[in-house]
Amino acid sequence: MKRRPVSTSSPFLKVVQREWRLVSTHSIYYAGMIVVPVFFAVFLLTLMGEGLPGDLPIAVVDLDNTSNTRKLVDNLDSFSESHVVLRLLRGGTPSLPLPTLGL
Question: What's the pTM?
Answer without folding.
Answer: 0.44
